[in-house]
Amino acid sequence: MKLLNKARNIFLTITIAILFLMYSCGNDPIVPSDPVGKLKFEFYHLIDNSKIVFDSLIYFNEAGNKYLINEIQYFISDVEIHNDDGSSIILNEWNDIHYIDTDMESSQEYTFKEDISTGTYSAISFTFGIVDSKNESLMFVNPPHSFMFWPENLGGGYHYMKLNGKWINEDNLLAPFNFHLGRGQIYYSFPDSITDYIDNSFRINMQNVSYNIMADQTTTIVINMNMNKWFSNPNTYDHNYWGGDIMQNQEAMSHAIENGHDVFTYTLK
Amino acid sequence: MKKVIVIIFSLIILSIIGCEEKPSPTPYSPTPYNIDIPFGFPTDLNIPDDNPMTVEGIELGRFLFYDGRLSGRTHQDSLMSCATCHRQERSFEAGIDHPDFEDGHPHGISGLKTHHVMLPMINLVWNKTGYGWSGFLYPENQNVDMRNIEDMVRLAVLAKDEIDGDTTRIKNLFQSIEGYPELFGKAFGKEEVTFKNIERAIAQFIRTLISANSKFDGYMRGEVQFSPSELNGFVLFTTEEGADCFHCHGGYGNPLFTTHLFYNNGKDTIFTDPLDRYSITGNIMDHGAYKATTLRNIELQAPYMHDGRYKTLEEVIDFYAHDLNMSEQSDPLMHHIIYGGNQLTASEKEDLLNFIKTLRDDEFLTRKDFAIPDKFPDQK
After folding, report:
1. Do B350 and B237 reside in the same domain of the chain?
2. How near does any CA of chain A get to the CA of B39, in Å?
3. Which residue of chain B has the CA closest to A166?
4. Which residues of A touch B41 (CB under 8 A)?
5. Does residue B308 form part of some domain?
6. Out of B42, B240, B254, whose CB is closest to A178?
């Protein structure tokens, strides 16, 4: 009996020691944290408030060009969300460059990695394209991102956007247009002598958005790209004037970029 | 008490021993083969999970690729292998100077011509959008037998206009050839020859066929300079106001020199080919669209276009300069089409051609490990 009691004591001591060790080797003590939620963007591409019917020659821009859209591919980067109190959170610590492709459904949804503190937020901003300091050649080696490369002799890096379509031109022909935006060039003599390059990326600021991040939930914001806005306000962009390709035409690109300020709108889902 | 402890301790030891795997009677330990990613090339590879690359698999694949008995026949007149058409010196295409094919258009063992001319068999490990001119073999295909290079091997072996073989006969033949069963054992763990493993081995070898050491690659790495003509050709290649080849055929930022995507490049206005991209997508805008080929080693890969209509690169450059045909289906990237083409001058055409020739990779064309083995496993 004495022996049995002794064995029981040893067993209990060892068990307590193991439990103690398990507890002490575990994670840090759990401290109650602030409630957090997630933020997701969905990207819609609209003309006249409706989703684009691709390859359909049914659209008109402000200049009166009858046109169709075949595909849209673009980057947004450096997304920032703003609090009511004026402070802001930079998502993914500026490292995020997101690719959107109308032929790739998976690219049209994007959930940010961060846990975001709950509360009411009042604005969203992001860069259309990629700012010069980050827009480095060969930073993307895998498709489809790598297919967006912007040739070295035109400044390198990546297209901000490829918007491909066709319009009925002055000769009544269905002419292709490649509305491609990226780093611009200043020419001493066209096309051989380039003296400088221009960062054409720009910030999109969507104010008065007012959305809530709720604990353990994902808030979805639809980011709409309104295509006809690229072709109006303040500049009436006429394909007949600018032609089918503009990568080497800074004046055309700057008109497009000036129009870009109100291309994006948001909808809460 | 002591007895109980001894019994428990023994049981624990026994259970540990009992859980260990029994040694395999035939050790199967293939050596993993890792692809060295060339400078600027994608890191995403198309290697199916059920066919990892191994040194032994590639070695076997190389024998099979070159062995004429892949036709399942042994008579000298009936031999046909992958290499009958895919010649290393022509960058693994037939080439316009193929001794048996008129104008470089291949035909099968029966004399039946293939529907299209050949596509380059290089750098395929980076193709994730579909093999063939229409992209009919692609990784997400609902039909699991129509997805990858492995399937391409099987289809080529069975096709009337290619090897016209019989899989049972072929596997039985290779089972009987001295040396092969042992190689299958080393590559796949079983000496029994299966057609599935024949597909796998050849696909592994094909995935090693990487061309990435042309003059252009040296230029990218900062090791060599271009001549003024080559440099001007490169500028023309990569500018919209020039020839604008790069949107479909790549360049510095996409050294594959293809997007592996499908375009209607303005060859025709009436589309009657039942095996164009439309045959896969059902989208009427894909009539007359075909895969953009890689331009690496392109000077060796005539004839050009899906139907081999152009015999020289000069003809191709002339086509893009002056002879484009506008249709509802012509790709929007072909923006020069409203002028009939990019209107390059004679000297610009020459510069463009000189640049395209910098994509020739002589090392690739002569590498011993891509060439026909000195002897097959049965020493023949």
Report:
1. yes
2. 9
3. B332
4. 141
5. yes
6. B240
Q: Which residues contact B11 (CB under 8 A, 6 or more apart)?
A: none
Q: How many helices (H) and strands (E) does chain A have?
A: 3, 17
Q: Do B333 and A152 touch (CB under 8 A)?
A: no
Q: Domain span at residue A88?
A: 36-268
A146 and B254 within 8 Å at the Cβ level: the answer is yes
Distance from CA of A89 to the nearest CA of B (A): 32
Beta carbons of B114 and B85 less than 8 angstroms apart: no
Please state whether the peptide bond connecting residue A234 to the residue before it is cis, i.e. omega within 30 degrees of 0. Answer: yes
- Nearest by Cα to B305 from B321, B285, B289: B289
Residue A265 main-chain phi, psi, to 5 deg: -130, 175
Are the beta carbons of B332 and A143 separated by less than 8 Å? no
Number of structural domains chain B divides into: 2
Check the CA dihedral B86-B90-B96-B97 and report its sign: negative
Which domain covers residue B246, as residue numbers? 215-363
Q: Are B301 and B360 in contact (CB under 8 A)?
A: no
A189 φ, ψ (degrees, to nearest 5) = -145, 125
A9's CB contacts (< 8 A; 6+ apart) are: none
The SS3 call for residue B268 is coil
User: What CATH number is given to the structural domain containing B183?
Assistant: 1.10.760.10
A55/B285 Cβ within 8 A: yes
Domain assignment of residue A11, yes or no: no
pLDDT tens-digit series, residues B288-308: 999 999 999 999 999 999 999
- Looking at the complex, does the CB of residue B216 fall below 8 Å from at least one CB of chain A? no
pLDDT of B1 > 80? The answer is no
List, as ranges, residues 177-196 from A with C-beta within 8 Å of B: 177-178, 180, 191
Residues 6 or more apart whose Cβ sits within 8 Å of residue B85: B93, B94, B98, B101, B106, B118, B162
Nearest CA distance, A137 vs chain B (angstrom): 7
Inter-chain residue contact B235 with A153, CB threshold 8 Å: yes
Q: Does B8 touch chain A (CB under 8 A)?
A: no
Contacts (Cβ under 8 Å, ≥6 apart) of B54: B30, B31, B32, B33, B187, B204
Q: Residue with structure tokens 């000069």?
A: B314
Q: What is the pLDDT along chain A (269 residues), one digit of tens a residue?
A: 454 555 566 555 555 545 444 444 444 455 557 899 999 999 999 998 999 999 999 999 999 999 999 999 999 999 999 987 888 888 876 568 999 999 999 999 999 988 999 999 999 999 999 999 999 999 999 999 999 999 999 999 999 999 999 999 999 999 999 999 999 999 998 888 999 999 999 999 998 888 999 999 999 999 999 999 999 999 999 999 999 999 999 999 999 999 999 999 999 98
Q: Indicate whether A24 belongs to any domain.
A: no
Q: Do A70 and B332 touch (CB under 8 A)?
A: yes
Q: Are residues B242 and B133 in the same domain?
A: no
Q: How many domains does chain A have?
A: 1
Give chain B's end-to-end CA distance (angstroms, integer): 73
Residue pair A247/B240 in contact by the 8 Å Cβ criterion: yes
**pTM of the predicted structure, to 2 decimals:** 0.89
